[in-house]
Each structure stands twice: as structure tokens, then as C-alpha cells.
Amino acid sequence: MNRPMTNEDRRTYDVIVLGAGPTGENVAERTRAAGLSTVIVERELLGGECSYWACEPSKALLRPVLARADARRVPGLRQAVGGPLDVAAVLAHRDEIVFHWKDDSQVGWLDSVSVDLIRGHARLDGPRQVAVQTPDGDTVLLTARHAVAVCTGTAAAVPDIPGIDSVRPWTSREATGAGRVPGRLAVVGGGVVAVEMATAWQALGSQVTMLVRGDAGLLARMEPFAGHMVADGLREAGVDVRLGASVASLAREDGEVRITLADGGELAADEILFATGRVSRTADLGLETIGLTPGDWLTADGTCRVTAVADGWLYAVGDVNHRVLLTHQGKYQARIAGAAIGARARGEQADETRWGAHAATADVAAVPQVVFTDPEVAAVGLTTREAERAGRRVEVVDYDIAGVAGAHQYADGYRGRARLLVDADRGTVAGVTFVGPGVGELLYSATVAVVSEVPLERLWHAVPAFPTISEVWLRLLETYRDRQQPGPS
User: Fold this and answer.
1) What averages of pLDDT result for each successive group of 10 residues across the chain (489 residues)?
2) Dihedral of CA 133/136/139/145: which sign?
3) Which residues does residue 18 pair with via DSSP β-bridges, in sequence order?
4) For the Pyridine nucleotide-disulphide oxidoreductase dimerisation domain, which residue ranges apply (predicted)?
5) CA distance 4 to 9
6) What is the DSSP annotation of 85-110?
7) CATH number of the domain that 253 lies in?
8) Do residues 158 and 172 make contact, with C-beta atoms less than 8 angstroms apart?
9) Residue 315 and residue 304: Cα distance in Å, rounded?
10) Which of these, 54, 63, 18, 8, lies nearest to 38 by C-alpha position?
11) Hey, CA dihedral for 52, 53, 56, 58, is it positive or negative?
């Protein structure tokens, strides 16, 4: 679909998409399916952060780690998997998963859905206008008839710490793409990236120390027991987890990173990973040409239309709007936004009602997430803390997953916990959190329950198969029922 360009090529499309990660690709596919001419602009690899530097390579590193951990719990198998991982094979598989950082297959897919591609750096140049600087030094001037969708995502946030530039720190990109195992790795942060990369690199042979600022613990946005259980698992695996540890300064001397902590303590490492959040990729996007502030998150409504821009032509989809920084939610938003752009282009009113065709309601009501650690964490909907802050009356139901028959079959000494939040006023599921080996596969059923607002009396008729871990659903319902029944007078 590439077209020959002059030094200043002018083109007009119905829709211009900035960024070809999973979010941008889904927006482009949906608008093209709606019959709108669409071009996508990307300055790096088609497929974006998730495909090459985040979700895909990180899970390629983690899968053998977690599979071995599961196998070591099974009598008759643990002896066969007692040795170290084949690091070279794990890294080679990671490289295959990311297609050796080449995007030929993604380009082929884009051609198959009839979306044009321009490689280069795009900047807004006024309302509905985009200027693209190509790698060859040419300029392509684009005009959108209906919409410009910003799908540029986020980049790793690196704090301003004295000496940080001198140590060349790892971010999530280096952590997922490294070609060798560091002897000693310091991980700064306690969120998802931090715990997953600590899990992976420790199992691959690195001596890992986690430095977690404050006393909230790991995975602070989830139910507290999830972070506690993950911390226990990391410590048992050999990770040094230090809470309340802040980095004051850094230096690289004789090839190693010297870390000075705020309390005066010192630590040495071969590499240091900062997993301390994300920033919006809007700093060099030309936002000032339409009256917005470069570097800001783009606040959007339920259809992903930027609220601060007149005439409704600018959309911010995925991480860049700061609603939910998860790939699957970005793809969900993309389907919503693409359909809304198509409807509005046809002169139709967008359906922005709750759970309507053009409303990203799940972003606030039912966000699923899996943390690939040992133990695994899976959650959707509200946490207990979030329910309290929102003024929702919920009843908390906990159950030890080790009590279900499926856990006995799954592993010897299974450790896990489930929490069900019941909306006390409506009798529906408001949130679910699972912790334990293999619980990620329980998450879609929980998501359906939350999204569908299924009454608990109906859930009794959803029969879990025996013997599977999904029987925990029945045990949670039984626990809730027994609590509701009055005792003997």
C-alpha cells in the first residue's frame, strides 16, 4: 500500500491513525471496515510496545519460569525439572516470539485490510492536519476528513535521580530485550513490571534485589493479600525484597552500578531496572498547534474523543488517554472508537449509553488484569478499597483455593486465595481477585460475571466442572450463602 512520495507529498484520508501498536491497528481496521479511507503512521515497528518490548517478550521469558515452578509441585515430576533453565533456549524463544524485532508480518496484515502505511515521525499541524517526517527526509502532509486518532501509547518513566544518566539504567524495554543475564539486578518499583521482571530474571540466574519505595508493598493497586503472597513467592525464590527503600543517587564504577539509598545504605548491581510508571508519548506530537500542552495525557470521553478539542475530530485511544494502561483495554477502546468514528462519519448519533456500542464502560467497571508471577494474580472489577472509596456497599467473601479438588490435582501444596465482592444492594458481582498457580484462566468467567451483572441466584446454575480449580466459584457462593443464613436461636 506504500505510494511513491515527492519531497512534499499531500494526501487526504477520512481517518489518520498515529501509532501502529495493537490499539492503532485496531482503530485502523475498524474504520476501514466502516468504509473509511485510513492511513496509519508509525516511526518504529508495526505492532508497537506490546509486541516487541512488553507483553509478548515478557511472557516469553516468564512462561518457562512458571511452567517449571508448576512442575516442581507435582510428585513424580519435580525431580525431572530440578535443574536450571536453558537460558540460551529461553532467550532464543523470546527472539522468535518478537520476530527478531522485524515487522514484516504486521505490514502484510495491514495490506490485507487495505490500510495505508507511512513510516516516519508524525506531528499535528493544526486542526485535522498531520505532518510526517519520513526516514528519507521527505515530508508528507496529511489531512483528515473525519478524524485523527492518537494511539501513541506511553514510555517508561525514569525518575530524576543524581547520577542516573551515567548508569544507563534499564527500563521495561531493556528488561524484556536483554541478550544476557546480569549477575546482579536491582529492580526499582513494586508494580506489575517490577514483580514480573524480578520473577523472570531471578529464575534465569540473576541475583535480584527489589527496592520498593514506601510501605504499601507490592502491587499496591490490587487487594493487599495479592501483593503479600507475591512478595512471599519472590522471597522464597531468592529475591531480596526491600520495602521502604528509596534510591538517593547512582554511579557506575568499574562496570558496576553503585546505589546509595535514602537511609544511607549502599548496594551494588550489574544492572538497575526502573519500573516506576509510564509517561504519555505526546511530548513531540504537535499538541501546541491545536491549543494543548505537549507531554500531557489526553483526556477523552467514553468514545475516546478528546474533550478539550472543538468539533470532535481528535480521538485519544489506549494508554495515551490514561484511562487504563493495558493492551487489551486499548484494543477494546479501539473497537469502540473505530465504531464511533464510523457512525459519526455516516451522520449517525453515537450510542454512549452505559454498555452501549460506542461507550468504553468496561474501563471503569470491569478491567481484567493478570500478573504473571508465582503465584499468579488475576483480578477484575473493584477492589475492597475502591468500593469503599466509591461508597459502594459490598460484602467480602474469601476462600482458600487449596480447598477445591482441582487444586489437589494441580499441585502438591497448592497455595491460593480467592476474593469475591458482592454488591450488597443489587446482589451482583462487583469484583473478583484470584491468587494462585493457573488462576489467569479463571479470569474471563469473572469478567463475564462483572460485565453482565449476573445475579448471584443465577450463578448457582453455572455449574463448574469437577475436578477443576473453577470449583472455587461454587465454594465462594456457598460461603456467601452460609453467611446469609441465620444461625440457631
Assistant:
1) 60 98 97 98 96 97 96 89 94 97 94 96 98 96 98 96 96 97 98 98 98 93 98 98 97 95 96 97 97 97 96 97 96 97 96 92 94 98 96 97 90 91 96 96 97 95 95 97 74
2) negative
3) 41, 150
4) 367-473
5) 9
6) --HHHHHHHHHHHTGGG--HHHHHHH
7) 3.50.50.60
8) no
9) 5
10) 18
11) positive
Contacts by residues 228-235 (CB-CB < 8 Å, ≥ 24 positions apart):
229/375, 229/377, 229/415, 229/417, 229/435, 230/195, 230/371, 230/373, 230/375, 230/377, 230/435, 233/373, 233/374, 233/375, 234/195, 234/198, 234/199, 234/202, 234/210, 234/373
Phi/psi region, residue 416 (left: phi>0; alpha: psi -120 to 50; beta: rest), is beta
CA distances from 267 to 52, 185, 210, 250 (A): 31, 11, 11, 10
In a 3-state reduction of DSSP, which class is residue 409? helix
Provide long-range contacts, Cβ within 8 A and 24+ apart, for 254-260: 256/184, 257/167, 257/186, 259/186, 259/211
Q: Which helix (H) or strand (E) holds 33?
A: helix 22-33
Does residue 370 come out as left (phi exceeding 0), alpha (psi in the -120 to 50 range) or beta? beta
| Three-class DSSP category at 136 | coil
Q: Are 403 and 328 members of one domain?
A: no
How many angstroms separate the Cα of 40 from the Cα of each of 24, 56, 252, 312? 8, 22, 41, 19
Query: CB within 8 A of 411, min separation 6: which ones?
Result: 70, 73, 74, 437
Angle of the 104-112 helix axis to the 22-33 helix axis, nearest 10? 20
Cα 143 to Cα 196: distance, rounded to the nearest angstrom: 42
The answer to whether the beta carbons of residues 405 and 435 sit under 8 Å apart is: no
Residue appearing with cell numbers 535443574: 83
* Domain extent at residue 192: 164-276
Cell numbers placing 272: 538497575
Q: Name which of 51, 23, 305, 301 is nearest 153 in CA terms.
A: 23
Residue 206 lies in a domain: yes
How many Å apart are CA 1 and CA 39, to the nearest integer? 10
Backbone CA torsion sign across 150, 156, 160, 162: negative
Asked if residues 142 and 266 have their Cβ atoms less than 8 Å apart, the reply is no
Query: Which three cell numbers, joined as nine digits, stand for 201?
Result: 530474571
Residue 55 falls within a domain, yes or no? no
- Check residue 26 and report its DSSP letter: H
